[in-house]
Amino acid sequence: MYIMMFPVLIWFTLKKIPENERLVVFRLGHLLKSKGPGIVLVFPLIDTFQKVNIGLKAFSVPPKQIITADKSIIEVGADIYFQIVDAEKSVTNIQNLDLSIRILVQTALCNLLVQKKLPEIEGERIAIANAVMVSSNKTCQNWGVTITRAELSHIKVLQGPPTKKPAQMCMPPGLFGGSDVPFNISQLAQLITENQGSDHTETIVNLLQTFVGGIKPVEDKAKQLHDSIVHKKEPTETQPIESVNNVELFPALDVDGILLLIQKALNENLVQKVSETFQFDVSGSGTYYLDLKNGQGSVGHGPDPTGHPSAVLSLSFADLQAMLFGQLKPFHAYMSGRLKVAGDTAAALKLEELGLRIQHLTNKNIPC
Known about the structure:
Residues 12-169 form the Band domain. It comes from Biomphalaria glabrata (Bloodfluke planorb). Belongs to the band 7/mec-2 family. The chain is an alpha+beta fold and 368 residues long. The chain contains 14 helices and 16 strands. The strands form five sheets. The chain has a five-stranded mixed β-sheet with strand order 14-13-12-15-16. Helix 6 (183-194) packs antiparallel against helix 7 and helix 9 (255-265) crosses helix 14.
């Protein structure tokens, strides 16, 4: 049949392939070696083929907004030059070669720039372009493609790095007699530095006594706070809980005082935030329940009335008091072993909301 149709088929059998192209031939679905350049013999009906241009090509990666390591926002793209080195792989291993390379380079560029700060990007354009090219070529090799050159486009800065605010020192309230500057400590340090080896014992003792005298006693104010809780009165402006050496001194309340304080702190907003029930097994004091799930909340002696508290907390009375006055976070108490939780641990950690509520009632007149 081929002999009879030879005069007609000859025009469809011989293909002329130029120097910058290759012909990838499939015979009955099986890949043959790529052919060309020159005259290539292709059998109609049983052979299919695809021409591949192996010349140098180029494309542009469209600019994309990127957030750098120093929180700057920039817009940058790239120009990419590539060449097909294996025509067979470029046909069989990838479906849309140009689009795949464009996405690959754009992803590699973004992953690299988000790890660098704005000054580094502006000063290392060539190094960044080379790094993108090397990273992309590791994948392109499987596609029969080699990226020969990469250049970053103009870097457009949309937003520079945010300015850092200077750190501010927050002095504990009531310390140094209300003064913001520990003047006596400065005098003491200057005296020791300038007169090393001299006997200034009396002067140093006087300065230390003056410094200690600047710390106001808190016993009377703790008693006032206790009385205000027992008699259902709000603390006045003269009743803040003082702080000494960054440790707040809370009043020494008994069990009934603690229960009254918790009862005073309960409201619907707190119940909505927590929405849990608790049972406290306080060593040396007994068992108590706290309902922060129903109504406006309730607290009292004995186990949880429902019989199914969200969490059962075992701790000492001192640690319970410290948690209520914000000196001990529930999470820190749990991690250090001072608080043992049976049941829902996440529910137990919500008790910090109760501590914040109590601190608001007792310290609302204290500035930061």
